[in-house]
Design goal:
Layout lengths: L22 H21 L6 H7 L4 H7 L3 H34 L3 H18 L2 H6 L6 H19 L11 H18 L5 H24 L2
Amino acid sequence: MDSQKSSAGASKTAKASKEPSRGRGVQRVQALLDAASAVFAETGYEAATTTEIARRAKASIGSLYQFFPTKEHLAAALHARHLDSLAAVFDSLATEAQGAASEQGAAGDGIIDDLFQRLLIYLEANPAFLVLGERRSLDPAVKKQARARLRGGIAGLLQRIEPPVPRERLAPLAALILHLIRMAAMLRADDDLTIRDPAVAELREMLRRHLAATQMRA
């Protein structure tokens, strides 16, 4: 029987209840998280069950509860892991932008194209991230922090481009970019190839033009 215990808040459940201390335990936790990611992506958070997650991971339900007492513990751990992975993407892009700037100036369209493409690839490869970010059990404070972290990473990249983006436009533009990339990820799931790729290209072009217009007004 699946547990539907509520959590006191995602901020308190980002880590497993019991931290694995040995290699086998680490592998088991990884298998459980991978299985949870697949199930959440396929069924959505609400319909997912810990019983199915344990089955996918080839683990007993008792083993799952040893590390993750509730479904929310699994969701919070996965969500935190994705945020860390995306932060690493921002860091990598920032390093590349710094190298480009030292040579010839960091062109805004190049950085934003790279950001758009890498985040789109990440969201396509990890569809559970969007599901987890919209789950009803997510603590509003944690959701706000996650959104701020993502927007902050994008704003940090915008600060590196030339011509510069006006400081007061950084936060709104970062929010817009994040929203457009989320839209692109949803469009990429469309089965109609005559619509999917052209629509994503339109979003990318909209972003380029908006960025160029913002830089011209600087």
